[in-house]
Write a structure and sequence with these properties.
353 residues, 15 helices, six-stranded parallel β-sheet
């Protein structure tokens, strides 16, 4: 709890005057004001987060955390739970979607086991920080104890602080866990107050009958555990997951150290909801990489006040959207730092009527 308390105390909104400073520089560049659209917004926010310093995205790191969920007992997924462990092996071999996109973006991927039910052998590249062998079934009781919720968050924060100390300048969130859109739906409903049907999607591609069962399971989990929406730890312990908690810890560490954090899809954004419930000012350090086709994702993003930069119909997770966002953030940063100003280029900036 000591690390969590320290991080929470360190999180504050960026200085209010930095946005205007950044905008003045953007308006001095050789272009009509606002003509680079949301890339300008992105650059401005990066400058704000860095306290007015020039933005840079040179050492991005994506965290792909894995954990299993007892709620798969309720038949809410199209895939068996063993696929979580199999996909972790795929990450370590470099063959998953996030590996391909991260390599292209020049991003490092940190693969961590926070609670995979199937035992994983020790091997190069795997960070083993298991809280337990998967969560309990949220339809029948809490996912974890409050102490385990704190442990999951602090594991994620510890891993994030290590890469920040090593120079990471952008953190991306990714995850793997069969059945994890069910706890993500429960977290989203709990924090936002949205109806269960509005935040529960088809995850891995379930059929109509399975979707109806999933909606019923999420509703039952909320009724059984009654999470306090104002208490992020209570929501995580009641209906969350270990990988969700770990990613919330990454958000809190990024916010405390003023490093931007790129959310991926629905599950990663549920982690963002937990983090912001714990430390509301953490929202200032979040970027929505893309909009997932999962209906709950749009609900979660609205609650966080975020507009996604991409909308590609993606729903893979793993950190794939965060990897794509690296390109946009790097482009925005380099436009800010490398583009000529009207003065330096000798271009007349006056507008004629």
């Amino acid at each position: 709890m000591q690390r969590l308390s320290r991080l929470r105390d360190a999180i504050a909104p960026p200085p209010a005057d930095r946005a205007a400073q950044a905008q003045r520089h953007l308006d001095s560049l050789t272009k009509p004001p606002g003509s680079l659209g949301r890339l300008e917004e992105l650059a401005r926010r990066l400058v704000e987060i860095r306290g007015g310093a020039a933005p840079a995205v040179e050492r991005p790191v994506i965290f792909t955390f894995a954990g299993d969920h007892g709620v798969v007992e309720e038949g809410v997924s199209a895939y068996p739970q063993v696929v979580t462990a199999q996909m972790v092996e795929n990450f370590l071999r470099g063959g998953a979607g996030v590996n391909v996109l991260a390599r292209q973006a020049g991003a490092r991927v940190v693969v961590a086991d926070l609670g995979v039910a199937t035992p994983l052998s020790a091997r190069a590249g795997l960070v083993s920080r298991r809280v337990a062998d998967g969560t309990r079934n949220i339809a029948r009781g809490p996912a974890m104890t409050r102490e385990q919720a704190v442990a999951a968050i602090e594991v994620g924060a510890e891993l994030a602080e290590a890469v920040i100390a090593d120079g990471a300048d952008l953190l991306g969130l990714g995850e793997m866990g069969i059945g994890n859109t069910t706890p993500a739906s429960a977290v989203t409903a709990a924090v936002t107050g949205a109806p269960v049907e509005a935040v529960t999607g088809r995850g891995t591609g379930i059929d109509d009958a399975t979707w109806r069962r999933k909606v019923e399971v999420v509703g039952r989990a909320l009724a059984r555990n009654r999470p306090d929406r104002a208490d992020g730890l209570d929501v995580l312990a009641g209906v969350g997951g270990f990988e969700i908690g770990g990613l919330a810890g990454v958000v809190l560490a990024g916010a405390a150290h003023r490093v931007p954090v790129a959310l991926d899809g629905f599950v990663a954004t549920a982690a963002g909801l937990i983090a912001v419930a714990i430390a509301p000012a953490a929202r200032h350090f979040l970027f929505a990489s893309h909009r997932s086709v999962e209906p709950g994702h749009a609900v979660a993003l609205r609650h966080l006040g975020l507009e996604p930069y991409l909308d590609l119909g993606m729903r893979l997770g793993e950190g794939t959207g965060a990897a794509l966002f690296v390109h946009l953030a790097r482009a925005a940063a380099r436009l800010y730092t490398d583009m000529a100003t009207f003065k330096s280029a000798g271009v007349d900036a006056r507008c004629e009527p």
